[in-house]
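Appendix C: a fully annotated inverse folding record. The material below is reproduced so that readers can follow the format used throughout the book. The structure is listed first as tokens, followed by the designed sequence.
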């Protein structure tokens, strides 16, 4: 028997949100926000409206903020309630129960068993990620889920490993962290009300932006880190790049798209600010490529001009945005 949270969806015909269809500098951002983009989109809700939270990211010492939509923002914007799922029995039983109750289950998973990561992690690397489970057929061992840039299906052995069916009662294995998304109280606002609510989030997240330019603090640490990564190799580089440069660049690509969304909803004059944030995204992408070459060739590279440009774009964009909405 097939159980689903709100309606059957065919992965073959599912159309992802424009953020995941358009040509972008950062095709994937991080697993959590990418899942939410598609969960909201599948509900007919506009994920662009909740993006002001990306403006609060900061350099955290060994990484940039792993940016995630605050649960209170999702409640305020869309009426969605998210609660932690107490995994006190095998996860598969909870998933069936929650889907029957009209709730999507967000859970940790291993990319090694997710076919949509073919060519990167699938059957190659064990990497923790988040999926949004929407449909399950226990007898047929088939699962349909939101992940990264779309909606996908897994089955057979991938199903068994995803739910740890080979070791359901192993006391040495911690349960996977999971949440459920209650869909029964969804609020669908018209464009004017959605914009008003979103502007409220923008003012809130501008107040929580870093008090000093975070790129300034990132610069000396990054330059030192590159020398260390040269001794470690490309494997360490990929993890470092995801934790630092991808979070910075992808966050400000989202910020760019958000400001353009505001422009399409009556807030004029934002394109110069969007251009500053777009420059952060593009220059950070260039920084990734330049760093990869430096790690691969072990050659000395002057990263200061590129980092200075990213820092200047952050300061100019934030100052202008705060003057307008802060």
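Designed amino acids, in order:
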């Amino acid at each position: 028997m097939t159980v689903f949270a709100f309606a059957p969806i065919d992965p073959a015909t599912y159309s992802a949100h424009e953020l995941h269809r358009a040509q972008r500098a950062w095709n994937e951002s991080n697993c959590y926000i990418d899942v939410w983009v598609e969960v909201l989109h599948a509900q007919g809700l506009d994920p662009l409206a909740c993006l002001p939270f990306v403006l609060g990211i900061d350099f955290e010492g060994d990484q940039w903020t792993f940016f995630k939509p605050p649960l209170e923002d999702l409640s305020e914007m869309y009426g969605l309630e998210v609660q932690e799922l107490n995994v006190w029995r095998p996860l598969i039983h909870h998933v069936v129960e929650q889907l029957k109750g009209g709730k999507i289950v967000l859970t940790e998973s291993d990319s090694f068993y997710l076919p949509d990561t073919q060519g990167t992690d699938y059957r190659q690397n064990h990497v923790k990620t988040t999926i949004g489970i929407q449909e399950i057929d226990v007898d047929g061992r088939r699962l349909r889920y939101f992940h990264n840039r779309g909606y996908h299906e897994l089955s057979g052995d991938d199903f068994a490993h995803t739910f740890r069916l080979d070791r359901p009662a192993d006391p040495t294995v911690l349960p996977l962290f999971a949440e459920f998304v209650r869909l029964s109280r969804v609020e669908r606002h018209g464009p004017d009300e959605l914009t008003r609510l979103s502007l409220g989030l923008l003012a809130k997240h501008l107040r929580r932006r870093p008090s000093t330019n975070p790129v300034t603090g990132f610069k000396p640490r990054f330059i030192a880190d590159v020398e260390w990564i040269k001794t470690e190799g490309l494997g360490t580089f990929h993890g470092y790049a995801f934790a630092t440069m991808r979070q910075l660049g992808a966050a400000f690509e989202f910020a760019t798209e958000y400001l353009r969304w505001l422009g399409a909803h009556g807030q004029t004059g934002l394109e110069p600010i969007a251009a500053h944030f777009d420059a952060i995204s593009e220059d950070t992408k260039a920084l990734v490529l330049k760093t990869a070459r430096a790690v691969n060739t072990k050659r000395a590279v002057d990263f200061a001009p590129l980092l200075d440009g990213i820092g200047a774009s952050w300061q100019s964009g934030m100052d202008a945005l705060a003057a307008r909405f802060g």
